[in-house]
Amino acid sequence: MLDSHALLTQAERQCHKHGARFTPIRRRVLEMIATSPGGLKAYDLLDRLATEHASARPPTVYRALEFLIEQGLVHRIESLNAYVACPCPEHAHGFQLLICRSCGRVEELHLDDVNEQLTQVARQQGYRIERQTIELLGLCASCTEQASA
């Protein structure tokens, strides 16, 4: 699991550097995501946030998530419609996600040459890539070991 304190400190620095406001709600949403062992869905975040902030509504969570994604602090797991904290938001290139279908653990990879190859092939086909999502679903080492025991 991520070191949530280090991640929040890094997020504060990054937002300050880009002149973006890292509000208490945005911070708390990031903290909730960072301390979750797998991805969190928006309504799970809303349920948790509502216990602390009675005024929390879906737009509150979705605006916070949008901000965190724009800042590179959170990734959306498309196949699960969930969100996971980015362990290295300073990495400006593409990423790939390994998702365990058993325990929900998510690992982030940075195979830049894979993303570049896909972008080049798309260009050759006349496409302009706007967003690239690569998710690999399977079993993590721990779950694989448990399954074989």
Describe the structure.
One of its GO terms (cellular component) is cytosol. It is found in: Cytoplasm. Zn(2+) binds at residues 100, 103, 140, 143. Homodimer. InterPro entries: FUR, Fur_C, WH-like_DNA-bd_sf, WH_DNA-bd_sf. With 149 residues, this protein is of the alpha+beta class. It has two domains: 4-85, Winged helix-like DNA-binding domain superfamily/Winged helix DNA-binding domain (Arc Repressor Mutant, subunit A); 96-148, Ferric-uptake regulator, C-terminal dimerisarion domain (Dna Ligase, domain 1, 2-Layer Sandwich), CATH 3.30.1490.190. Helix content is 48%, strand content 14%. It is built from six helices and five strands, in the order H-H-H-H-E-E-E-E-H-E-H. It has helices at residues 4-18, 24-34, 42-52, 58-70, 112-124, 141-148; strands at residues 74-77, 82-85, 96-100, 106-109, 135-138. Strands 4-3-5 form a three-stranded mixed sheet, with no helix packed on it. Helix 1 (4-18) runs antiparallel to helix 2, helix 2 crosses helix 4 and helix 3 (42-52) crosses helix 4. It is globular and about 50 Å long. The mean pLDDT is 91.
What shape does the CA trace take? globular
Which structural class fits the helix and strand makeup?
A: alpha+beta
Number of domains: 2
Order of helices and strands: HHHHEEEEHEH
Q: Give helix % range.
A: 40-55%
Instruction: Provide the CATH architecture of the largest domain.
Output: Orthogonal Bundle
The H-level CATH homologous superfamily of the largest domain, spelled out, is: Winged helix-like DNA-binding domain superfamily/Winged helix DNA-binding domain
Ranges where pLDDT stays below 50 over 5 or more residues in a row are none
Instruction: Tell me the fraction of residues in β-strands, as a range.
Output: 5-15%
Q: Give the beta-strand count.
A: 5
CATH level-1 class of the largest domain = Mainly Alpha
Largest sheet descriptor: 3 strands, mixed
Radius of gyration: 17 Å
The whole-number mean of residue pLDDT values reads 91
List the strand order in the largest sheet. Answer: 4-3-5
- The end-to-end distance, rounded to whole angstroms, is 24 Å
Count, helices: 6
Fold-level CATH name of the largest domain:
Arc Repressor Mutant, subunit A
GO cellular component, one term: cytosol
Organism: Chromohalobacter japonicus
GO molecular function: DNA-binding transcription factor activity; transcription cis-regulatory region binding; zinc ion binding
InterPro entries: FUR, Fur_C, WH-like_DNA-bd_sf, WH_DNA-bd_sf
